[in-house]
From TrEMBL:
Coiled coil: none annotated. The chain crosses the membrane at residues 36-53, 73-94, 115-144, 156-181, 188-210, 238-256. This is ABC-2 type transport system permease protein. The lineage of its organism: Bacteria, Bacillati, Actinomycetota, Actinomycetes, Geodermatophilales. It comes from the Bacteria. The keyword Cell inner membrane does not apply. Keywords: Membrane, Transmembrane, Transmembrane helix.
Length: 264
């Protein structure tokens, strides 16, 4: 009687591959020095702004009840977000510049799984860091103010939720542009144009059409949400919708480029 031939292992399920790929992407993200430099830059900006504003408030005459320190953190996220977006972007583009994407695709040939894992790790990492550092910034402001600034819980939940939305949408935009352009420099330029340069230029141009275009750019939406300002014809709800639309569109384009085009 002959033995039955051994059966090979079946295909690994997609959730299992996704979990392994997420773990690999997490390890890759935090074994690169660039990620730590971006984290340091974000921490310096957020904690530095919080401490400076708190110190300035401590030197002013008392005006009655303490003001919420969360406003300081929310404003500090406006410049600090660029470090977090850079961290998310380089998580996608770094190995395209070094050629490391080729062995990565050999290890994970399911391109949709690879893109999903990279996007999830980059966006969630940037968002978590943004929320933690924003909370630390508010704490630094309250501590340096000598009691002139406080930390009401209700305001904290609202501000940190807004920070999470803005950073997550911005990181998703950066990931999508990085996957679409496959160039760190090109994607960084695109992020700066959409989040900083074009909203400022068009918003202050004085032309009706330029103002209308500026209102639907992600940078305008981010500032509107973080600073609590409604633009001309733009509500906070509309600003949030604009951010999510840009993030979703960028991710879609990045995914299409990843699954359809060969790498070089």
């Amino acid at each position: 009687m002959t033995a039955a031939p051994a059966r090979g292992a079946g295909p690994v399920s997609t959730p299992r591959v996704l979990g392994r790929t997420c773990a690999a992407e997490w390890a890759r993200l935090w074994t690169v020095r660039t990620s730590w430099w971006f984290l340091l830059a974000a921490a310096v900006v957020l904690l530095g702004v919080g401490a400076l504003v708190g110190t300035e408030v401590a030197g002013e005459p008392a005006t009655g009840s303490p003001e919420p320190a969360w406003r300081v953190a929310s404003a500090a996220v406006v410049p600090a977000q660029f470090a977090l977006l850079g961290l998310a972007l380089t998580a996608v583009t770094a190995d395209h510049g070094t050629g490391g994407i080729v062995p990565t695709l050999q290890w994970t040939p399911r391109r949709s799984v690879l893109f999903t894992a990279r996007a999830a790790v980059a966006v969630l990492s940037a968002t978590a860091l943004g929320v933690v550092l924003a909370a630390a910034s508010a704490g630094a402001a309250a501590l340096a103010s000598g009691g002139r600034l406080d930390l009401p819980a209700a305001d904290g939940v609202s501000v940190l939720g807004t920070v999470a939305l803005v950073v997550a949408a911005g990181a998703a935009l950066a990931v999508g542009l990085g996957a679409l352009l496959r160039s760190t420099a090109g994607a960084l330029v695109g992020v700066f144009l959409l989040v900083l340069v074009l909203p400022l230029l068009l918003g202050n141009a004085g032309w009706t059409w330029a103002t209308a275009v500026a209102e639907v750019l992600p940078g305008t939406g981010a500032v509107s949400l973080l600073l609590g300002e409604d633009g001309q014809g733009t509500t906070r709800q509309a600003a949030g919708a604009v951010l999510l639309a840009w993030a979703g569109g960028a991710l879609l384009l990045g995914w299409l480029r990843t699954v359809r085009d060969d790498v070089r």
